[in-house]
Design goal:
There is one protein chain. It contains 13 helices and ten strands. The protein is α/β, with parallel strands linked by helices. The protein folds into three domains: about 100 residues, Helix Hairpins (Orthogonal Bundle), CATH 1.10.287.70; about 120 residues, Rossmann fold, CATH 3.40.50; about 80 residues, Regulator of K+ conductance, C-terminal domain (Alpha-Beta Plaits, 2-Layer Sandwich). The strands form two sheets. Strands 3-2-1-4-5-6 form a six-stranded parallel beta sheet, sandwiched between helices. A four-stranded antiparallel beta sheet has the order 7-10-8-9, covered by helices on one side. The chain starts with a helix and ends in a 7-residue tail after the last helix.
């Protein structure tokens, strides 16, 4: 039973006892005593105040027995209700403290995770997309309502409740061990401050910030952002795309909502220790091994190359743009960069 229901139960029980005692006195005295006097007598009897009898109880054995029963059972019900309510509040506080400690412990164990500052209209879709891509994510949000909404959408969500501009909350979210941070506050000044702070706390972290005013964009880059996104601009591009290339938009939307699995366009990075460095794309065999469609590649210091030939040689730092299921992309990434030697088949 929730706290709200228990409060209602306690209030209802107290009102029921008072009403029962008042009606009992009223019936015992055949309506000779006023009903308000009966209510008053019930209240002073239950609270054991002892101001004096407003109706003649002494000498009336029926009224005396009724009063004793009212005090014994009525006080018992009231004390039980108050104790139950107190226990519920204390239990809720203790469970909240323990839950917070367990969550902070889990966050401390994360390495290479992603932090999302702000869980509002922009932050929630970001959290959903990261979760669908099987990424470890930590939310920093001050509003309890926003946190609860995010928890409904994402099972087992890790979060830090507090102001995202506070350095202590960034530390609690593991900013120094994180691979990236996405800042989605509605105010540019908050985004700018967190961008600068995050870069100071972790020089290697990838920072993506939301932007409202385009004049702030160069400041965000100077503060350390790797990327700046304007929701208004993205929305405008989507509107234009819906008008001039609706089939392409339908294809991308159906890909995201496919019942055959979570399909995404993603990237695989060839690390320096990868056993496939110096080998060809054909030897990598993304399509045969992982059912991934290679769309393009990007080498360091060069632009994107679409539909590269199978003879293209893999080099350290090369990004492979692929399309496929999220699970297959994760599987391929771990297999490619953790293999010590080239497997057969």
């Amino acid at each position: 039973m929730g706290l709200k229901k228990r409060i209602y139960l306690v209030v209802f029980s107290i009102c029921l006892v008072i009403m029962g005692g008042s009606v009992g006195y009223y019936l015992l005295f055949g309506g000779q005593a006023g009903f308000m006097d009966c209510v008053y007598m019930t209240v002073i009897s239950l609270t054991t105040v002892g101001y004096g009898e407003v109706i003649p109880i002494s000498g009336n054995w029926a009224a005396e027995v009724f009063t004793m029963c009212l005090i014994i059972f009525g006080m018992g019900i009231i004390l039980y209700g108050i104790s139950m309510l107190t226990a519920t509040i204390i239990e809720g506080e203790l469970s909240g403290i323990l839950r917070k400690k367990r969550m902070l412990k889990k966050i401390k164990q994360l390495q290479g995770h992603f932090i999302v500052c702000g869980g509002g209209r922009t932050g929630l879709p970001v959290l959903l997309e990261l979760s669908k891509n099987m990424k470890h994510v930590v939310l920093i949000e001050e509003m309890s309502e926003s946190i609860e909404q995010c928890k409904l959408e994402i099972e087992g969500l890790l979060y830090v409740q507090g102001d995202g501009t506070d350095d202590n909350n960034l530390e609690a979210a593991g900013i120094r061990r994180a691979a990236g941070i996405i800042i989605t506050f509605p105010l540019d000044k908050d985004n700018l401050y967190v961008t600068m702070t995050a870069r100071m706390m972790n020089e290697k972290i990838r920072i993506i910030s939301r932007m409202t005013d385009r004049k702030v964009e160069p400041k965000l880059y100077k503060a350390g952002a790797n990327g700046v996104v304007s929701p208004d601009k993205i929305g405008a591009l989507r509107l234009a795309s819906e008008m001039i290339r609706p089939t392409v938009v339908d294809f991308l939307d159906s890909m995201l909502r496919s019942r055959q699995g979570e399909l995404r366009i993603n990237q695989l990075t060839i690390l320096g220790h990868c056993a496939f460095v110096g080998k060809s794309l054909a030897e990598l065999g993304l399509k045969t091994r992982f059912a991934l469609l290679l769309l393009g590649i990007k080498e360091r210091g060069a632009g994107l190359e679409f539909d590269p030939p199978d003879v293209r040689v893999l080099s350290p730092g090369m990004d492979l743009i692929v399309m496929g299921r999220v699970a297959d992309v994760e599987k391929a990434d771990k297999w490619i960069n953790k293999t010590a030697s080239i497997p057969r088949g």
